[in-house]
Amino acid sequence: MASIQNAVQVMVDKLVADMQGNQPLTAEEQALVSNAITKLTDNAKLEQAVVAVAESHINDATGALQQVSQSTGAALQTATESLTQTSTDLGNKSDKLDLLDAMAPNLNRVESLQTTNNSLQVRPLMPMTPIDIASTSSNNRRSTPVFAVYDSNGETHVVRPGFTHNANTEQCRLEFLKLSANGAEKTTTHTSFIYTNAFEQNPASKIYYYGTSAYVPLASKNNSADIQYEIVYSTQDSQTTAVANYGGVFCKSSGFTSITKPKLDLNATDQFGVSTLTSHKYNEVGVLYDNTKHCLVMVDEGTSVLVEKYRDGNIVTNTAIANAEELQAYVDAGDFTVVKFIYHNIQWPYGINSYNHSETTVSGYGTSYYGFFGRYNGVTKMGEHKYSVHYRFTQAKRLEPINYFFSNSSGHYKAPNANGTYSPDSEVRVVLETFDGELLGMYSYQARAYNAGYDCGVLGSAISCINPYSGAGILNEHYTYNQYGLGRTCRAF
User: Fold this and answer.
1) Predicted model pTM
2) Would you say which domain of life the source belongs to (predicted)?
3) CA–CA separation, 279 vs 12, rounded Å?
């Protein structure tokens, strides 16, 4: 270590050298500095003290470093022992986890059996909340067929056709609604009264009798994941029933000006065996739904190119379709579902009379019926002007048709007279199943006559819809003991 004397001398020499270029020290100033240096260099104790302090700090630092080294060594030893034990434990647990690979198929099998077992149980339906206005007036009667989409979130989106027309009463109401997953309430998203003598391009309070509707999940043009339920109309172009005046299909949100007229009788069959229907008749329509883009797809009548219909408008593609073979090839290469619309005015759905096996309207009080809506044994009965139609919108965001089987057993009433009276009990059962045979649910509703000598209403179509995800639906016997407006939500338990 350099002495203080040497350090001070170097400092002074530098000071003098720096000042030579400016104003050098006077002889007197240089003498004062020299005396100061002499006193500093002669002060041995000061130098020894500074050195001692420095050496003391070094010793302290050395001691601290030695302590850190010892502590770190101990910690490393402990960590090594801990890692060794952990490695042993992980090895044991890894052996146990390997067993899960063999258990996985069995667990899946158990889960599948539990799901099947739950589906095989017939679940009773309980009425929950009135959705119609009960009245002795026939103005309050409501039809029982529906267009229904069962969302995997438990909600149900429904089109309820009108029972009749040309008035602003309940029986003339076309209603689009949403049922909550818990069956506690319905929300009417739009409603119009049906008229044969009033045509509105964008239906508000009135809607033209000669048309069909659907209520489906559609995306926006710029985002296929932005899916919301949308009302879709199929309508004439003016107040006339002629096939030549069929207007086409449009979404309510984008308006009548976005209408697309499907090419006449150019059809294809989807993966479920259901065919589109483009006859241009006002009461029968079926169009393609793209499960990837979540839009409706049709071949434009005027240009023969594919048009994609979204909630907020159309995308006119560059894909030209010349004939049915090309359309079928396009459908086979994608993931499509045919959406069958429902007519605006259906009083009753069609079913089979258990007595004579004839297909007829399910409208008889105290009459037993059976039948299905969907596609079964090569026969399609979906929507249009005769049938209900049921779809599910899965967790994978796919719109899939489902089969709705129904059967009711109803005895006929006997009016009071001298020979007594009879008031029958009735039951209707419904089974929901995918087109490939997966059982989704079984449901039952039982009823008794509300008064002696009366029946229980029209039980064959009393379960209008029932969501297999949530068990929420609509009950409506249509009429019993001088009362109409019997619709109410229900839940399966």
Assistant:
1) 0.77
2) Bacteria
3) 112
